[in-house]
Amino acid sequence: MGCAGSTPAKGDVNVKKIRKPKPWKHPQPITKSQLVQMREEFWDTAPHYGGRKEIWDALRAAGEADLTLAQAIVDSAGIIVQNADLTVCYDERGAKYELPKYVLSEPTNLIRESGK
Predict the structure, then answer these.
(1) Where is the composition biased (Basic residues) (predicted)?
(2) In terms of CATH architecture, what is 30-110?
C-alpha cells in the first residue's frame, strides 16, 4: 500500500518557493545579443568572487530553467534562497551568492533584433 501522507524533511521548514523576478528595466535599451554577452561575462567571472563553483553552476542551471525544475535544482543543491527571485542565495556553509536580474530574466526594454 502507498503512504497516506507525507511529512516535510527536517530541512524543509524554511524552503522558499522560487518565482520569476519582477519586471525590470535596463538603464538603456539593449539587444538580445548584448544581454547574452552580459550573462556570459557574469557567469564566467562569478566564481572568482567567492563561493563554490558547483553552487554557481546550480544557480546558473536554475536561472535558465522553468520554475519547477529550478526549484528542484535549488533544493537538491542545498541552496538557501533568501529572495524568492534567486537574486540572493546562500550555500550550506553560509557563503552568499548574489545574482543580477539580467541573468534571471529579460528587461522590459529589450530590443527585438530583426532577422534573428
Answers:
(1) 16-25
(2) Up-down Bundle (1.20)
